[in-house]
Amino acid sequence: MFSPRLISFAILIALSGCSPDSDIQSQLSAQQDSTTQGVSQEANVTAEQQLDAAVARFAVNFIKFQPAMATSLNLSQAQAGHFQRQLPDYSSPGVMAFKQQMQQAADELAAIDTSSLNDKQQQHRLINQVISEYYAGLESFSAGYIDTWAGHLPYIVNQINGPLIDIPAILADQQTINNFNDAQDYLARLSAFALMVGQVEAKVADDAKAGVILPKALFPNTLKFLANFTAVPASEHSLVTSFASKLARAAVNSTDRSPAQSIEQSPSTELSPEKIQALVAKAVAQVETNIYPAYRSLSEFVAALEAKAPTDVGIWAQPNGQAFYQHGIQYLADSSLSADAIHQLGIEEVTRITKEMDNILSANGYREGSVGERMLMLNQEPRFLYENSDAGRQQLLNDLSAEIDLVMTKAPLLFSTLPPQDVVVKRVPIETQAGAAGGSYVPPALDGSRSGVYFINLMDMTSIAKYGLKTLTYHEAVPGHHFQIALNMQQTDIGLMRQNASFNAFIEGWALYAEQVAFEMGMYENDPWGNLGRLKAEVYRAARLVVDTGLHHKKWNREQAISYFAAATGSTEANVASAIDRYIAWPGQALGYKLGMLKIVELREQAKAALGDKFDIRQFHDLILLPGARPMSVVEADVQEWIASNKA
User: Would you state the torsion angle of the CA atoms of residues 456, 461, 465, 466, taken in this order, to the nearest 10 degrees?
Assistant: First the structure.
């Protein structure tokens, strides 16, 4: 088992993001002594050393509880211990222990006397404290779990995310297998995965006893996902086929090494064809005899719960749900606005953007009916659709890859710093596409060994309009999520937790802002339909402010939210139903996009007005991106300081 006491001095530095000349021995002593006394009370330890040690402990304990995240980041065993066989504990005691550990980290950071810290150190303490509070979740809401990306979520099993979806993806796509020992680790993790599914079932049962049950409307797609997971023979499941592919590549790489590069292998560990076949057979047995039965057991339990599920879909209908939604506004929207104010802002933004869409439609001969009705007409025109076939899907993937290449040729006009990692386009796996978003982004490995991935959902090709795909690509890939997250990971001086910080309003606000940057980069030049797609995407995010607050604060029902969202975005009700279900499952997450974007635009306009000819958009983008994801209040302070220093 991984112990934080075994962490190396060098890794303590890397995890904390402390200065190179810090007293390492004091940091280690602070880490060890804190088990018996608070770091702020240790004798002869400076506030800077306390901060470094507290941040290091925070990162070490986070990884201890989240070994799957260590795999996603491709951390080494020297950095994170032998985590490759372990998975998070999603039982009620496991979730509670993680929340308590994160709250302890927050309390420790809050207790540090900041009077002797410089501005950069004070900011470092504040950001890490907010991150730890984010992962501590809402103490008065025991249901749900802590997601390493989205924070405290109320339903551990649902149609769109959760450990039953996320962990298999990590195992199949991100766990590396280069040799026989790695293969043994993977098989051990398959065994741990089966146990984890049982923990999740127990957590669902405990939450139900506390009165928190997934809304009834989300059961059909949730049960469909669970059924799809076990629909294929075990030998054809991605947990097995990905394993076989990795083993085959590892065997080829082993034989391709020169004698000087070769690693000594005993006959028992050599990846011969016979050994690979035996390893794959063990994986098939794990999936068939342990994992599939665990999923089926959980599926039966969830199906039985449906009769008790609430018909009201908003989080307000769950015990202490109103406080939970306010928690979402605070951490996911990063806003001090009330739910009512956010709702009204959304209505105003929808009105403004709709007028711009009307101008484009009218200028191109589409003048009859509401904007939403005219957008529906466009969605049915063959010129805006790909062929609904494997060939059409491949053409779509090829076109998105070409669009990424084109953005990268123009990006230096507006960006001084570009991410070194590539981003690749992939289709959402078929077994999870029913509940998945239209597009999503998975970050690269922390060490750059794995590219970022832009996933596109190709389940229903008739619902994918060509004119909207450019904007989706700018949001999910470049210059959106990939620029922000990959560059965030490059900032090695800010520590592990800040390198991977999940500030939703900053991250999603940047990605929505990136759509506007692409417009300013000339990506929509002579393409009114593409620009219409950009505006449709923006009105989509504005309408989210309305429906999210409508569902979770104003007590809208699902049908009311679908009707409004379809009309506001020019979509069919069938096409927006999955989006509304997403907002039901993730209270508050959808608020971050527009609120974050509006803040970045507001700060940019302030800087332009204050600096005039001295304003440099490339420097502004470095200012936003290079310090890493952070609370919007910290971003605002950074911009004000930048304005002051450039005016002098």
Answer: 70
Instruction: Tell me the pairing of strands 423-427 and 452-456.
Output: parallel
Per the CB < 8 A criterion, the answer to whether 389 and 359 are in contact is: no
pLDDT tens digits along 203-226: 999 999 999 999 999 999 999 999
Stated pTM of the model: 0.89
Distance CA 218, CA 223 (A): 9
What residue type is assigned to position 202 of the chain?
Answer: A
- Return d(Cα 585, Cα 614) in angstroms, integer: 45
Residue with tokens 């890490």: 128
Structural contact between residues 154 and 143, judged by C-beta atoms closer than 8 angstroms = yes
Query: What distance lies between CA 171 and its chain's CA centroid?
Result: 17
Provide the 3-class DSSP secondary structure of residue 107: helix
SS3 554: coil
8 A C-beta contact, residue 151 and residue 502: yes
Q: Which helix (H) or strand (E) holds 439?
A: strand 439-442
Is the CB of residue 291 less than 8 Å from the CB of residue 197? yes
Q: How far apart are the first and last CA of the chain?
A: 55
Cis peptide before 479 (omega within 30 of 0): yes
* 105: Cα separation from own chain's centroid: 22
Residue 415 has a pLDDT of: 98
- Could you give the CA distance from residue 301 to residue 536 in angstroms, rounded to a whole number? 40
Q: Are strands 452-456 and 439-442 parallel, antiparallel or unpaired?
A: antiparallel
Question: In angstroms, what CA-CA distances link 126 with 129, 496, 600?
Answer: 5, 15, 20
Q: pLDDT tens, 49-83?
A: 999 999 999 999 999 999 999 999 889 887 888 89
Cα separations in angstroms, 613 against 367, 477, 563, 605, 639: 41, 31, 47, 13, 17
Which residue in 152, 145, 144, 112 sits closest to 128, CA to CA?
112
Amino acid occupying residue 72 = S
